[in-house]
Amino acid sequence: MLDRTPSLEVALVNARSPDKPSKADVLAQANLDGGGNTDEARRAKTPLPVLPRDSPRNDVAVVPEQVDALERQAQELLTQLRNTPIAPDANKPVEQSERPVAPSISELTQRSLEAMRLEGQIAKDLDAYQQRPKRRFVGARAMEYRFARYVEDWRLKVERIGNLNYPEAARQLKLYGNLVLLVVIRADGTLENVEVTRSSGQRVLDAAAIRIVEMGAPYAPFPPDIRRDTDVLEIPRTWSFTKGEELRSGTD
Predict the structure, then answer these.
(1) What are the tens digits of pLDDT across the range 218-236?
(2) pTM over the 0.85 mark
(3) Which of 128, 154, 206, 237 is the 20 to 30 Å CA partner of 111?
């Protein structure tokens, strides 16, 4: 026997209101007076809220996950390829281009010679570096006592020679000023180089300072405690030709 009872259509809503609508459009599980985003007579196709069609934030969040998944897949495939031996097809003839080409004797010889030349050049450069003189820059305001004592004795000698041989042109022209000299002394006390690194602005004073340092050479040889790890001392020094017609020195 067929059930001819008329069906009852009930709409599911995802909200409710305290007021009952005066004229309901549909039956629902709760009262809902108004709502929606249109005045047209439409029914919702789903009780779920509407999701935005394009959500940049969701896309940005999904991209790193997709990249990670692709990387994992690639790593898995690479692992499988490494662990799976590839057996040649017995029915497929091996073409000439697919056969591994072994290096010839001449190529192996050439590679060996290149490796030997490279090894020899590295050894040569290392020996040259080790044979270079060990240089020590002693221009800091604070230095080890062994260097400070040697530099102080050297400074006193230069000042003494400079005051005994004060440039006559500086006296006559009343020239005064400061300059910086870089003096390079070898372990035996001889000069390797003397140069002006900051000029006084007076060529007469610059040339006189160089000449005074050269007149004092050779200087004392390095004592054993310096010579054990130093071959060359580089000493930057400020020299002043004062109004009292004296040569004085300060730190760099």
Answers:
(1) 999 999 999 999 999 999 9
(2) no
(3) 128
